[in-house]
Each structure stands twice: as C-alpha cells, then as structure tokens.
Design goal:
2 domains, single chain, Phage_regulatory_Rha, Phage regulatory protein, rha family, 5 helices
Length: 141
C-alpha cells in the first residue's frame, strides 16, 4: 500500500503521512530488523513532477496507522482485505497487473483532462475578473 493511499484513506495530507512514516521507521526497524526498511520510491504527479512516496507492506502500513484513531485504522485494515482479495482473484498475475495498469492510466488521463479543463476555466475567470475590474476602474496586480 502506498503512503498516498494511506493519506487518502485517512484524509490526511500526504506530506504529513510521509513525516509520520519517517518518524516511526526507527521503532519498526528496532523490532523487525534493518532488512525490512520502508521502501521509498518516486511517483509522477499530475504536473509531471517526481514526488516521494512509500510503498509499505501490510505490517508496515498497519504499524504506521496504529497511532491514528480507530476509524482510520479500520479503513486501512478494510483496504488491506480488499487488496488481498484482489490478489487472490488473480490481480497479482501478469494479466491482472496489466488490467490494473490500464485502469490507472485511464484514471490518470481522466484527471489530466479535468486538470486541463480547470486550468482553462481559471484562465477564463481571471480574464473576466480583469475585464470587470478595469471596467469599474479597479486594477488588479
């Protein structure tokens, strides 16, 4: 499970989840050993920029969220159960992985189009605001 998914499920900012993970990793390693370090990877955000995220095992993600409130822990536990069912149903196979990648790519394209539309709309609104402000003698900088 990724740190971004934990952030989404717990409704926390991703940067705060990253900080929680960094802060808690030493205690985890003390109990489980240095061979089980939290895996820090990169992902590409909507702007096309690389950002850090952690890919955590079930044990690691449950450890991280164990300090959160019970509802948040339950959301994570439920998601892990869903992931395990998907793996059991063959999503972990090559075909399943390809399907998952296709779904992720489709979602990326949808979000990219939404972002483009939002940026276009913002530009239009800024233009209207500028026109309205100059029409009444106000100047925005």
């Amino acid at each position: 499970m990724s740190s971004r998914e934990i952030a989404e499920l717990t409704k926390k900012k991703h940067k705060n989840v990253l900080n929680d993970i960094k802060r808690q990793e030493p205690a985890y390693l003390e109990v489980f050993g240095n061979g089980l370090r939290f895996q820090l990877v990169k992902y590409v955000d909507a702007k096309g920029e690389e950002r850090p995220e952690y890919q955590l095992t079930k044990s690691q993600s449950l450890f991280v969220v164990s300090g959160y409130n019970p509802v948040l822990r339950a959301r994570i536990q439920k998601r892990w159960e869903e992931l395990e069912i998907l793996q059991y149903q063959g999503v972990g196979s090559a075909d399943g992985i390809c399907r998952e990648i296709a779904l992720i790519r489709k979602e990326q394209l949808r979000l990219g189009a939404k972002l483009t539309n939002n940026r276009r709309r913002l530009k239009e609104l800024k233009s209207k605001l500028h026109f309205m402000s100059t029409d009444i003698g106000c100047y925005l900088y």
